Batch of 2 targets.
Target 1
Amino acid sequence: MGTTRRPLRLAPSLLSADFADLVTAIRAAETGGADAFHLDVMDGHFVPNISFGPALVKAVRARTRLPLDVHLMISEPLRYLSAFRSAGGDTLVFHVEASGSPVEIIRATHDLGAEVGIALRPDTPLDRADPVLDRVDQVLVMTVQPGFSGQAFIPTVLPKLEAARRELDRRNPGADLSVDGGITPDTAVLAARAGATFFVCGNSVYGQGTVADNLRSLRSALVRGSQRAVP
Ligand code: DX5
Ligand code: ZN
């Protein structure tokens, strides 16, 4: 774990892409300058929706060299860490609200040679992750309720994001602070100002317009958000 903040990165979420043409979606994001891909795994239990499992992660792995950030919206993350690591996940992100001991999940993920992230739903206080903040590679502050793409950013999460930034700067500055849900150029500026370093974008990349134009707008929002306001 590093001692300085990581550079700001954009991670398109393939949940918003055309599943029948993922290769085109992957190429477009790579050409447009994406830094990673975000893969949303949903089990129909931890969240009401069902998406995909390790087989799809493996298929994506075969088509890109960019890091794969695997968001495990599943009830029993410990049971599946090895499957998602073997499939090619570089970072495995589990929810603090899921079952199992966070310390054990973090250790098991590191033992598999992957980075580990801890995710919090919008209404889960940061305190829940506090005991392990210095052991993780990423803290994911959800900015929508997990389960579906295309929802609106919840602005009341911003104070929690700022608090996470302060704690990470003090205890684990090299960990990513990630935001996921409703990230557009406007909300990316707010999240960057609050100290986020990793920006998951579904609809704002794969919705309207071209992937290249969308990534360009998001990138310039990150630059704006990371510049100090001129008094
Ligand atoms: C929501 C997922 C998100 C989702 C983001 O449960 O975790 O990653 O794909 O999609 P947008 O950016 O459209 O809100
Ligand atoms: Zn996600």
Target 2
Amino acid sequence: MTFRALLVDKAGDGTISASVQDLPDDRLPDGDMTVAVEYSTLNYKDGLCITGKGGLVRTFPHVPGVDFAGTVEASADPRYRPGDKVVLTGWRVGEIWWGGYATRAKVKGDWLVPLPDALTTREAMAIGTAGLTSMLAVMALEKAGVTPPKGEILVTGAAGGVGSVAVAILARMGFRVAAVTGRPEAADYLRELGAETIIDRAELAEASAKPLESERWAGAVDSVGGDMLMRILKQVKYDGVVASIGLAASATVPSFSVIPFILRGVSLLGIDSVMRPRNERLDAWSRIAADLPHDKLDDMIAEYGLSDLPALGPAILEGKVRGRTVIDVRK
Ligand code: NDP
């Protein structure tokens, strides 16, 4: 038996290459579940793995793809039977374990969750790691007491994968959403997803010398990091909450100050999707199935095949990919 996969390899001179290849099944890692992958997706981290950047992939050759959805082919885990539809996100699959850019994957049963009844495998990957992480952030804001009457929520990197899903979920839940984007042409798309206000990235990109700015946001979902994160913290209302997801601009905050924390009681919550316990993933997926409007998903999706990935990897790192990119691995 063979399977088809995007194989990333590193030559002796350090050059990274990515190509679609047919491989024998015995090249798959040792998992207790074999899954016929139907869809995977493209996340920022996949861009790093496809291009060999960021030191995420340590062993070559490697099959990237940090998430996938498909059908169980064989199971040594009593919770699953052949024919079950399943979803995988996180657990460093696609980084240190062969991932979803393949027609077949072998993984551990603990890493899978059953596909919610309300979703197809394609919809699950339109949501993917980015959407799961957005939902985890929204649930963290809720748990911290942020509710629609408290005011507007700011979403940064809004036209990206995490941002797009966050805008759609928050709007559906009745929040007024302000979307920060560096792409003026994405304004109509973001309004369609439910954003009420569009903010030019340039307005928040530079550090501010002021210790605090006017109170504006009840909360924020930030996938950008850097000085923009600090600008947001300075603009969040008394007792407001910011969920930090990503580092699309920078992992460091040169202008960092504790003033918003100690004068306004602002909270900064860290969101990690990779190692979240299974029960939280199940909760988040059932909330996604209930709270993410399916019609909005269609607006976010562009669909490609395995052979498009060598070009898509660099594109997402350059911020050129809008919304969610679904990969039909059978194409
Ligand atoms: P995308 O590339 O799809 O989206 C990132 C968006 O950030 C871009 O679309 C762009 O939005 C904005 N952006 C890019 N560069 C800059 C910049 N220099 N300054 C300001 N804004 C910028 O990536 P994802 O949505 O998949 O991921 C977003 C971030 O979240 C990444 O850093 C990723 O690593 C992280 N992440 C973390 C997870 C976790 O578990 N914590 C899980 C998933 C992702 P626009 O065009 O609208 O300006």
